[in-house]
Amino acid sequence: MNWAGLYAVLSGVNRHSTAIGRIWLSVIFIFRIMVLVVAAESVWGDEKSAFTCNTQQPGCNSVCYDHFFPVSHIRLWALQLILVTTPALLVAMHVAYQQHQEKKLLMMTGHGDAKHLEEVKKHKMRIAGSLWWTYVCSVVFRLLFEAVFMYLFYMIYPGYQMVRLVKCEAYPCPNTVDCFVSRPTEKTIFTVFMLVTSSICIVLNMAELVYLVVRACARRGREHSNPSGKGSFYGHKLSSEYKQNEINQLLTEQDGSLKDMLRRNPSLQEKGDRCSAC
Amino acid sequence: MDWGSLQTILGGVNKHSTSIGKIWLTVLFIFRIMILVVAAERVWGDEQDDFICNTLQPGCKNVCYDHFFPISHIRLWALQLIFVSTPALLVAMHVAYRRHEKKRQFRKGDQKCEYKDIEEIRSQRFHIEGALWWTYTCSIFFRLVFEAVFMYAFYFMYDGFRMPRLMKCSAWPCPNTVDCFVSRPTEKTVFTIFMIAVSSICILLNVAELCYLLTKFFLRRSKKAGNQKHHPNHENKEETKQNEMNELISDSCQNTVIGFT
């Protein structure tokens, strides 16, 4: 299981997301995960081996490194990305549950053939009803995780700049010792880059939240003014199918009654032939 | 998530690109990304380990390396390639949106929809016209801007494209001025020039594609204007004819229904 595996899992969620959700997912995968894998990991690759202290005292190097870098940036970002992308799985699970219910309903009503079951799997679920709540919760969790990690980052590494030199007094270092960090400027550049993309993701999540709330309020307003026009989240597609079935039935009945009338009044046959809608 | 995944994502865009766009994508993947992964990364692999300064002063090497290489060539190229290939996703999103609309029309049973199968919609190639033309042109424009910005950043940071063999460093804690030697300078120069040359080719291809799209746009416009002159309301005439026919049919239907009742 690696980033590619996570990508495979989350691509499925993409289909049931809003447009902003899809943009968010693209930003996460291309500007955060991909940059982390192809660039940032090699910048931090030699962080410990190239961390040099101005002393020959054995153990001083390790102790000072551990004191100033309790958790490496790379690991923090990896954890952040995993936790931030995982709430989308709540939505995936809910969608899977809804699809399962729809399939059961189809089988109960005698539409349980392979074609209909395939249709259930393929069609996109509307974000309405309890799915709306699950989706909103997942967005809220995403926001929460992003904010928590950004705060954690700031707490562990005050300011986002990587210093060139740290002064270390931890045992067994004799007195105060100068320790030099490897590639501090490059690390600062990437830290700022990841911070900016994290902020962009937070903005996208907030925009998505606002969009979902506005859409729900608009839908509610429509339902109040037109109470007959609501569709169940369950059988949204099914209800439209049943509607079509009803229409078909009415048409066949009408056809039958028209045919009867034509038989009774053959003079109207000619006019009837011209009517293509009948 | 690595270069392979990016290739998968961008491969889909290829279908809706112009021929120049397809050439650009090929050049990007073979002459830039592939060279970066199989060759350049090895050349720069030991850049810090083999950066040697003529001093025993601890920390001097780290500080001098950081001073002369604020961001490694490899990382700059990786960021450049990511930024340059991402505008193509705008086109991919627009195409996906158009496909979604056509699928909706198809499912509604719209008579205007000329597809027999939903699979046909999925495999259909969209012509670059209308709103898609604007999206495509914007994406090329952004590509050009990113390429230019990164080339300038490169030139600005490394004062030209040549990798020197020796650097003189006097940053603290180095005592006085210290000689520092770069690992594999000639090989790095060769690859830097190669990547710059391919980047310039990509810029040229983008400019050519932009010109091609603009020319196509103006040609199409003049053709339309010409058509309008010779056949005024040519399209509207067909629509009005259809409307008249529909009216006649509905009139006759109404008469039939009235006759029945």
- CATH architectural type of one domain in chain B: Up-down Bundle
Please give the largest β-sheet of chain A. 3 strands, antiparallel
Helix content of chain B: over 70%
Order of helices and strands of chain B: HHEHHHHHEEHH
Q: If you average the pLDDT of chain B, what whole number results? A: 82
* Count of helix runs of chain A: 10
- Strand tally of chain B, please? 3
Largest sheet, spatial ordering of strands of chain B: 1-3-2
Span from first to last CA of chain A?
61 Å
Largest sheet of chain B, in brief, is:
3 strands, antiparallel
What's the CATH topology name of chain A?
de novo design (two linked rop proteins)
By CATH, the superfamily of chain A comes out as Gap junction channel protein cysteine-rich domain
Q: Work out the count of structural domains of chain A.
A: 1
Structure explained in plain terms:
The complex is a heterodimer of chains A (278) and B (261). Chain A is mainly alpha-helical and 278 residues long. Chain A has one domain: Gap junction channel protein cysteine-rich domain (de novo design (two linked rop proteins), Up-down Bundle). Chain A is 69% helix and 4% strand. Chain A has ten helices and three strands, in the order ααβαααααββααα. In chain A, strands 1-3-2 form a three-stranded antiparallel β-sheet, with helices on one face. In chain A, helix 2 runs antiparallel to helix 4, helix 5 packs antiparallel against helix 6 and helix 7 packs antiparallel against helix 8. Chain A is elongated and about 85 Å long. The relative contact order of chain A is 0.12. The C terminus of chain A is likely disordered. Chain B is mostly helical and 261 residues long. Chain B has a domain of 149 residues: de novo design (two linked rop proteins) (Up-down Bundle). Helices cover 72% and strands 4% of the residues of chain B. Chain B has a three-stranded antiparallel β-sheet with strand order 1-3-2, with helices on one face. In chain B, helix 4 runs antiparallel to helix 7 and helix 7 runs antiparallel to helix 8. Chain B is elongated, with a radius of gyration of 29 Å. The C terminus of chain B is likely disordered. The interface between A and B is large, with 48 and 37 residues. Chain A: One of its GO terms (biological process) is cell-cell signaling. Chain A: Pfam families: Connexin. Chain A: GO terms for molecular function: gap junction channel activity. Chain A: This is Gap junction protein. Chain A: Its main location: other.
